[in-house]
C-alpha cells in the first residue's frame, strides 16, 4: 500500500494517472491482502476529527497474519479526486478466518473513499 501526494491546485479536473508497478519475488514474508467489510461512515463531527470510518478487516488466508495489520483509506471529494489519505495500524495478530473492527479518523469530511488492508503472514 502506498501513497502519492499532490500540491493543492496542481491537478486538472480531467487528469489521468498511469502507474508502473514492479513486483519482486513472493516470499513467506510478502504482505497479503486482507478483506474489508461493513464500512460505516460517522456523521460529521467538530474538532480535530471531522469524521470516522469503522469497518471490519478479515483474514481469509490459511495462515495467521502478524501484527501490525495496515489499513489505508483514500478519501475522494465529490469530483472523485483524492484529497486525503488516512491510515491505521492495528497492533493485533489475526488468526485464519478471524476479523477485527477498525476505526479510521479523518481530518476533514470524506464523502467517498477507497479502502485497502494488508498484513504479513506470521512465522
Give the topology, please.
Layout (H helix, E strand, L loop, with lengths): L31 E2 L1 E7 L9 E9 L5 E12 L5 E9 L7 E9 L5 E10 L2
Antiparallel strand pairs: 1-7, 2-3, 3-6, 4-5, 4-7
Largest sheet: 4 strands, antiparallel
Average pLDDT reading? 89
Question: Could you tell me the radius of gyration in angstroms?
Answer: 16 Å
Quaternary structure annotation: single chain
Strand order of the largest sheet: 1-7-4-5
Secondary structure: number of strands: 7
Give the ordered list of helices and strands.
EEEEEEE
Give the structure's gist in a few sentences.
With 123 residues, the protein is mainly beta. The protein contains no helices and 7 strands. It is flat, with a radius of gyration of 16 Å.
Keywords:
123 residues, mainly beta, 4-stranded antiparallel β-sheet, 3-stranded antiparallel β-sheet, 47% strand, flat
